[in-house]
Amino acid sequence: MSATLTPTPPTPKPRPTPSKRASTALPRPPALNIDPSALIAQHASLAGPHPILVAANVVLHPHAKISSVHGKVLLGEGVCVAERAVVGVQGGPEVGASIGGVTPPTAGVVVGNGVVIETGAVVEAEEVGEGTVVEGGVRVGRGCDIGRFCTITAASVIPPDTEIPDFTVVYGNGLRRVDTTLKERTDLQEMRLVMHAKQIEVYKKLIPNNVGKWMG
Amino acid sequence: MALPFPYTYYSCDCFDSAAAVPTAKRASHPPPADDEDERTFDPRNPRSNYALYPLEHLLYCEDCRQIRCPRCVLEETLNWFCPSCLFEVPSSMIKSEGNRCTRNCYNCPVCTSSMTVSSLEPPKHPSNDDTGGLAGPFFLCCPYCHWSTLDIGIEFEKHTGITQQLARIKNGGQVVPSLKEREKAREKRHEARDGLAAAREDISVELSDAADPPAQEDVFSNLSSFYKSQLSLGASSHPFSPHHDINFSSPSSFSRIMNLYSSASSKKQKRDKPPPMREASSVAEGLAIHTSSSDHAAIQDLKLRGWDHTLTYSQKNNQLDQSVRFASELRPSPTLLCTKRGKRCRACRHILSKPEPKITSTRYKIKLLASNHIPRLSIRALSASLPLPTVPSSAAQGFDYSHLQPSATIHFLLTVSNPLFEPVRITLATPSTTMGKVKSKVTILCPQFDVGANTDVWDEALSSTPARRGGPSDSSSANSTQVEAGKIWERGRNWTSIILEVVPGIIEQHRGLTFGGDQKYRDDDGLVEDEDVLEIPIFVRIEYESDVAVEDRAPGTESTRPGGKEKREEAFWSVLGVGKIKPLQ
Ligand SMILES: [Zn+2]
Ligand SMILES: [Zn+2]
Ligand SMILES: [Zn+2]
Ligand SMILES: [Zn+2]
């Protein structure tokens, strides 16, 4: 299941999603930069020709998928990516319209410190701010800009190029409100980050680390 | 009619026989009154909408031997419980405390999901990893939309008894004086006011020192205590009572009239002129005065914090105090309690369904379902059933129920399955043409037949496997042309199927053509709603022999052979919805 980075952009196909079968055989490119304190579980996959940066204390659960096929991916400190969650711009009709056989790189995905991406979520956003929680099954479209300490509640869909200001809670059927509690209480923000750090420590005890495989 | 075609509805005649029900306690033979027998059930009758139910919605009273629909059962509340903490609340407490949870259960005023108690204390260092870190101030927090009581400036000292703590804190954190303290303050003010010359001055005094208007509960408690004092004291002790507001619409004169009828005081008060009651005239007495300053404050609030700060209609509606307008006025709403209910027969009061009293259990102690007592009628097109017996979804196979070809003979397979442990003789009857504008011909090819008893499934599987599909397998292998009058189509352990021959009527599309004699439809341009739906009313009569119920049959009441078998008979109307007729081109 574990895939390595492909050295060349994939050949243009009608659906240019990276084929795992093809990429497993390919060597890892030098653009993969992983902090040794990161926790990368078995079966987590990092793939794509563009750079991937994994900062300190990042946790990638089994079957989490980081894809830089269409642009770079930067995971900030303490980012947690849960099972079957996908981070990275996905292949789509617009991106698939490649010029001269080379897919033009997008702005990629930058995930801020302490962001939690829960089970099955797909994050293609350009930027996700610090301390934000993206709950299970959420789809964040390409080019979105998610602020700091936001909460995107489960199964929400954020259409592409949406800007979501800091401390926003997206809930219900596209309803939004400002998380006034968190916004006005810096102590609660700190508490959230502290709790998150504790959570990561627990993960490190529970999940066998496979980071060595990716360190080269 | 929400079910997809084809469907079967059962008719409960409780409305029509409502007059007969109280006397019919012992009538084991359901007496479909004499004229009832002759009258054909009309599924088009608007009233029929309220009598037709799918079999799954019906209960059965074993005493009355009749179907019981939601209209002819009585519901009784067995117990109250909180859906959030699953604690039972005694009904005496419901009367005193109301229908909301008084423990720690609250719903988010923004999104209605249930709230959790969280601690504000920063987490300790990982050295003590135990869960006993219950210190520091607490707050209620919505895990979904992240609204919390910190938004309205409320923190709690303890993590239990939230209701009591919340009752003492206003939004913003000020402590609300307890009821006793308020009583005392009110009395003090009363004394002070009695010293004053005029009530009018009193208002202005109160207004000037009341910076913020009192909460709604305060207004209510003030007003109710004022009225109580008015009722008990009488007017003589109130020298300032205004006499000008006595008219028949004022509440004071209403309660005065009510007083006339109350036995205790009527005699005395008839002699003197009934003391007029005055209205509340100060804030302490519950007078709520509209002030323009509160309006200004609201407008200021709107200007300052915008539309997002206001509440939606449903948020407002979920609040205990429904006069709130802004997000800063929200209060967490205590969880509404739920009930567990039992159902009784309206005629004989026997219990038809009763859930287990334990709150956490979803099972039933008693549940008398109609599907265990009444044969199930299911219908499908014969042509649909034939081609592929391997395909499970045979019902929809190649047959379009919503486009029935008019004036073409269609065969339907009507399967009657028997839930009883005795073999049953079924007699079916239907009018030869359906009612309404579109006349469809219906023929039951075999109106009388037997259905086997509902014996153990294993009996059948072990013994008579080959005998089961005798007739049908021949016919299905050959063709569907073997439809014969007077013969059943197929028979199984506890079911029998017969053929129903239907010739859908022709829908008259245009006015001016041959309309039926029905005056009602004369002026209609096109079809009346659902006129093209073909529903066949079928009268079902069941006869069977069963053991005499010991506790039930007193000698002499029925034609019983002691200790032996008893002939029973039941009858009801059902409606088969077979499809929609295609309009003629
Ligand atoms: Zn009924
Ligand atoms: Zn409760
Ligand atoms: Zn909420
Ligand atoms: Zn009954």
UniProtKB/TrEMBL annotation, chain A:
| Keyword terms of this UniProt record | Cytoplasm, Cytoskeleton
Coiled-coil parts of chain: none
> What SUPFAM superfamilies does the record point to?
Trimeric LpxA-like enzymes
Protein known as: Dynactin subunit 6
Compartment list: Cytoplasm, Cytoskeleton
Q: Which family does it belong to?
A: Belongs to the dynactin subunits 5/6 family. Dynactin subunit 6 subfamily.
Asked if the Swiss-Prot or TrEMBL record annotates the protein with the keyword Metal-binding, the reply is: no
The UniProt function text for this chain reads: Part of the dynactin complex that activates the molecular motor dynein for ultra-processive transport along microtubules.
Gene3D superfamilies assigned to the protein according to its UniProt record, in alphabetical order = Hexapeptide repeat proteins (2.160.10.10)
Under PANTHER family, the record lists: DYNACTIN 6, DYNACTIN SUBUNIT 6
Gene Ontology molecular-function annotations: dynein complex binding
Q: Extract the InterPro entries matched here.
A: DCTN6 (IPR027777), Trimer_LpxA-like_sf (IPR011004)
GO BP terms in the entry: mitotic spindle organization
TrEMBL record, chain B:
Cellular component, GO annotation:
dynactin complex; stress fiber
Name the domain of life this protein comes from.
Eukaryota
Q: Where is the composition biased (Basic and acidic residues)?
A: 179-197
* Bias (Polar residues): 473-483
One Pfam annotation reads Dynactin_p62
Q: Which InterPro entries match?
A: DCTN4 (IPR008603)
Q: Where in the cell is it found?
A: Cytoplasm, Cytoskeleton, Microtubule organizing center, Centrosome; Cytoplasm, Cytoskeleton, Stress fiber; Cytoplasm, Myofibril
- Region: Disordered; residue ranges are 25-46, 177-197, 263-283, 463-485
| Keyword Isomerase appears in the UniProt entry | no
Q: Which residues cross the membrane?
A: none
Q: What is its main location?
A: cytoplasm
| Swiss-Prot/TrEMBL keywords | Acetylation, Coiled coil, Cytoplasm, Cytoskeleton, Isopeptide bond, Phosphoprotein, Ubl conjugation
Family listed: Belongs to the dynactin subunit 4 family.
Assembly and partners? Subunit of dynactin, a multiprotein complex part of a tripartite complex with dynein and a adapter, such as BICDL1, BICD2 or HOOK3. The dynactin complex is built around ACTR1A/ACTB filament and consists of an actin-related filament composed of a shoulder domain, a pointed end and a barbed end. Its length is defined by its flexible shoulder domain. The soulder is composed of 2 DCTN1 subunits, 4 DCTN2 and 2 DCTN3. The 4 DCNT2 (via N-terminus) bind the ACTR1A filament and act as molecular rulers to determine the length. The pointed end is important for binding dynein-dynactin cargo adapters.
Q: What is the designated name of this protein?
A: Dynactin subunit 4
